[in-house]
Give the backbone structure.
Amino acid sequence: MASSSLVRPLSAGATACLGTLPRLAPPFCPSSLSLRPQTRGRRPASFVARARGRETPASKQSKNAKESNQAASASAPEGGEEVEEVEEDLPWIQEKALDLVEFTGTVTQAIPGPRVGQSPLPWLLAVPLAYVGLSFVIAFVKTVKKFTSPKAKRKRLVNKNAFLLKSIDELFQKGKDEVKHSALQGLMEKTGFSMEDILRKYIRYALNEKPFNPDMVVDLIHLRKASMLEDAQVAAVLNEVSRRIVKEKGPVVMDISGFTERGFKRKVAVQALFGKILYLSELPEFCSRDSSLIIKEIFGVTDEDADTLRIHTLSEAGDVESLEKMVDDSDTEDFKDGSISAP
């Protein structure tokens, strides 16, 4: 009884106390814990700053949208749980893309000059300018080829030869006194020929185009004196004239039977030219007998053939007496003495 009475008040007090005591927290349960999101390791501050410095307009726009969303979510009441903001790692390929975009923008800004918009005007100007430039290049190349071609060089040489021969003929028409060394020097400067070339060209012209008479011989003698060339130089001029004749018409052929009419005329002309040059070479007033004079060897003529073709007198082309009369007195004395030297 005693035990039951002791227990009963305890039980009643315990029951009353249970109504007044606060409710204890529920027992520990692992499921009641809030799972916090796991965060990855933070990136270095320098890398984050560099990545933010490379932001493009598109990335800035996406970032602003993200920040506005985060601000709206932060202002809205949540269920009492705070979520820590986590900075995501950029993939490797995205980092390379950002680097490329940044480098391209930097290079574009570094290029000087105005930025040309998409307009058809530059193309409209480029097409005619390209056509004009191409036309100029083509015209320049054609002009260079025209002035440097063998045909053009030959034409210029022929024009200079014609100018030279015409000028000398005009001097002889004015009088032999006009044919001076100074006048020949002026022709040298105008044509670019040497004194030997002037004498050689006029001798060849006179032998081909003019009758071989005393007047022509006197003109050649006077031109030879005005040139003031030495006997060796005059002999070289006659040798060169002979070489050019042989190169053009061939050597002297004594037996001309069996040739065609054209070949016959050519060989007769070669024989006549050889006789004229041989006559000039044997004139003491024109050229002394020098060992360098090899006219016979150039034409392929023997001594017997040379005697046959030699012009002993000018009776075939003029009178010797008329030739001696046209030569001045001093030249006549030199004819008799057989010794004349260049002045």
About this structure: The chain is about 65% helix and 0% strand.
